[in-house]
Amino acid sequence: MDYKDYYAVLGVPRTASQADIKKAFRKLARESHPDSNAGDAGAERRFKEINEAHAVLSDKDKRALYDRLGADWEAYARAGATAGAGARTGSAGAGNPFAGFAGFGGPGGNVRYEFHTTGDAGEFSDFFNAFFGGASQPVHEPTGPGRGRRPTGGATFDDILAGMGLNLDGSMGSGAYAAGNAATAPPTGGRASTRGRQATAEAVAEITLEEAYHGTTRVVDIEGKRLEVTIPKGADTGSRIRLTGKAPGGGDLHVVIRQRPHRTFTRRGADLERELPLTLGEALLGAEVPVRTLKGRVLLTIPAGTQTGRTFRLKGQGMPKFRAEGQGDMYVKARVILPTDLSDDARAAAERLVRLADQPDPRTRET
Fold first, then answer.
1. How far apart are CA 160 and CA 41, in angstroms?
2. What is the spatial distance between Cα 69 and Cα 101, in angstroms, rounded to a whole number?
3. Dmax over Cα atoms in the chain, in whole Å?
4. pLDDT, tens digit, for every residue of 22-63?
């Protein structure tokens, strides 16, 4: 099954803080909640995806495991089923894909792991259940020697690791690849690397914001072999596209997207931000001002007395969501441009306006 990019689902970068993840989740959950989208099956699917992504990224241990394995998770999951017995390595370092990850590869003792969800495995995708061993209920590890306690309907954490061909201490189990064949991180620049018995390759595709909005294609060169890659709408920096069996040696090709900066728009996940210059008259008296979006031009009503920094939201004028339904929003920030080089008549008129307006001192609150 295909790798799910939970960061793309929430529209946040991989470096997002927990506060950013929580904020994005709340916003998207409100927009896609079934109560607000009665009869919309797409919104219901989107709501489940959002909850699933939040369940992983808001949990420190799950997020660390997800970040560590990434799109290569299947290699580890398959290890226990495809490799022969007797390939055990006793080291928790060499050949251990979890070395350095909290909770893996460390000494035994009083260790407790918990995965908290709603308890209904049906709420999560097959990918989630495969990645995390189908542990849809809290999983408790032993507080001393021996096997873990198994709650009703749950599974112990060493059962999950066993499904990946690993022991509780993180070392490779009897069903795992030998250390010499352990998976290695794919390099950049389109070079091939070994993973098990197949090869994987990684290439970078650079696109513009407009291409990310409409979708596009790129030709990548992998060891002299040119391949055309279809890039879906909404792709962002860090988005990954997998071409099964297209790498040298019959492995998978992973195309990583890099989006160039834009001179007008700043992208925040599926949302866009831009400044809107206003004349003194437009800001002071109000006006209808044309605003460029990636869909075309729209008219924005500027209320009288608009100040620099005031932000207007244009719903649905942002980016398409990558491999998901829906569209982000555009946030337009006003910037008032004052006239310069006033003529004598204009200056006299401005002085009269200032006297008539009788504006209070805006600095009176500064103490």
1. 32
2. 11
3. 94
4. 999 988 988 888 777 777 778 888 888 899 899 999 998 889
- Contact criterion met (CB below 8 Å) for 268 and 275: no
Q: pLDDT for 305-362, tens place per residue?
A: 999 999 999 999 999 999 899 999 999 999 999 999 999 999 999 999 999 988 888 8
**Are 171 and 90 spatial neighbours (Cβ–Cβ below 8 Å)?**
yes
CB 287 within 8 Å of CB 302: yes
- Contact predicate 159/85, CB 8 Å: no
The burial of 172, by beta-carbon neighbours within 10 Å (0-12 exposed, 13-18 middle, 19 or more buried), is given as buried
Nearest to 120 by CA among 96, 137, 98: 137
174: exposed, middle or buried (Cβ count in 10 Å: 0-12, 13-18, 19+): middle
Strand partners, 288: 301
Q: Which long-range contacts (CB under 8 A, 24 or more apart) does 6-9 make?
A: 6/52, 6/53, 6/56, 6/57, 6/66, 7/53, 7/57, 7/238, 8/234, 8/236, 8/238, 8/239, 8/321, 8/322, 8/323, 8/324, 9/49, 9/50, 9/52, 9/53, 9/324
Is-above-0.70 flag for pTM? no
